[in-house]
Amino acid sequence: MPKYLTMPKIGMNMVEGVITKWLIAPGDHVEKEQVILESETDKAVQEIVATESGVVHKLLVAEGDTVPIQAKIAVLLEEGEDAASIVLEGDTTIRVDKRETPVSVVPEPQTKPVKKGAKLRISPLARKTAANFGIDINELSPRKSGLRITKADVLKYLKEPVKVEKPVEEQTGQFLPFTPTRRSIAAHMVNSNCNKPRVTLQASADCEGLLAWRRSYEDSERVSLNALLMKIVAWALRANPQLNSISAEDGIVLSNEINICIAMEVPKGLVTPVIRNVDRLNLQEITNRISKLAQKAEEGRIEINELEGGTFTITNLGSLGVESFDPIINGNQCAILGVGAILDVPVAYNGELVVRKRINYGLSFDHAMVDGAVAARLLRDIKAVTENPFLILNQQ
Questions:
Q1: Is pLDDT above 80 for 162?
Q2: At what angle do helices 372-387 and 225-239 cross, to 10 degrees?
Q3: Distance from first CA to last CA of the chain, Å, rounded?
Q4: How much is the mean pLDDT over the chain?
Q5: Which helix (H) or strand (E) element contains residue 180?
Q6: Which positions ≥6 away from 382 have C-beta within 8 Å?
Q7: Which of 57, 188, 371, 381 is catalytic?
Q8: Is it the case that residue 178 has pLDDT exceeding 80?
Q9: Of 97, 250, 367, 381, catalytic
Q10: Is 367 a catalytic residue?
Q11: Alpha-carbon distance values, 307 to 98, 105, 221, 350 (Å)
Q12: Strands (DSSP E) found in 109-259
C-alpha cells in the first residue's frame, strides 16, 4: 500500500516552500527521520526529513517547484511491493509554473467574488485588515460559499499573485519572480508599515570613545563594531525595559531576556538572526555568534529557531555609506535602531573647532506601545554610552 510524504509546516507563518534540492531518487530506500530534501521556506533553507520508511516509488514535485504545506511530494512503497499493482489516489502530481504561486493539491470549493451592490458578509476585523492594505472588499471571497469573509480570507488574497495587464511594449526586461523569502519580507514590511504607528527619533553621537574601546581589544582579540553596538543597546534596554517588548492583544509583553536581532543581507534577501541574552555575553562571544550566524545565513543554512524570539533589532547600513535612515520595525517588536556611517565632522569640542568621528542613530518605535519620551530616554542612553563606554566597561 503506498505511503505519501508531504511538505511539513515549519514555523508558524509558513504556507509554502520551494523544493531546492532532492536528496533521494526513485528506487532509493528511505528510513524515517532521514533527510530527503532541502526546501526554501519564507525564512530560510531547511532540511526536510521523511515521516515514513519505504522505497521511493515516485517524486511528485521537481526541484524549483513551489509547494503548499501538507501537499503530497513523494510516494513510498513497502519493500518488495509490486509497483505495477499500485493505484495512486487521484492525480497527486503538483504541476507548478515556477514563476507563479501553485494551486493546492486538494481541490477547493469554487467561490465567486461578491457582486457589487450585493449584501457583503464580512467580519469587522477582516474589513479593517482590508482597509489597512488598501484592498477593495468587493474583490474578496470567503473560503466557502455561504460563509462570511474573515481576516484569513484577506491574508490569503494578499498571497495570491497579482495579475496586471500591461501593454506589450512595457513588458520588456528580465522577470525575477519573488522567492518565498522575498515574498515574506514584502508581506512583513507592508504589515509593519501599515499597522504600526511608527515614529523615528534621530541623534548624533561622538564615537571617538567607541572606537577607542574597540582598539583596546585589538592586541588580544577581534571585536566587531556590531558587537559593541549590541552591548551598548543591551545596557540601555536593561535601563528602559519598555522598549524590550513585543506587542500582544490589548497590551505588551516585557521580555525577561534581551534578544537582539541583527539585520544581514544575503543573496536571497534580508534575514534578521537573533543573538540571545546579549546582556549576559562578553564582546568576544557576541562577535563570534554574529560571525557564525552570518556565515550560516550566507550559505543558506540558517535555522528557523535562529530567526525567532527577538525582542529588539539593529540594522547597520554605515558600511554602505548611508548616513541616516528611517528603519521599519521588525515584526511584533517595539523598536529598531538604524545605524549610519561613521563620519569626520567639524564640531566645537572643549572650546575649539576640531574634527571628530561621529555616528548617526535612527530609533524607530511603535507609538501605540510606548510614548515618545520613553523612546527618547532609550536613545539618550545609547548616545551616552557611545560617547562614554566606561559606563559599561566594568561589566566586561
A1: no
A2: 130
A3: 62
A4: 81
A5: helix 180-195
A6: 203, 205, 232, 233, 236, 337, 361, 363
A7: 371
A8: no
A9: 367
A10: yes
A11: 26, 30, 27, 45
A12: 198-206, 245-248, 251-254
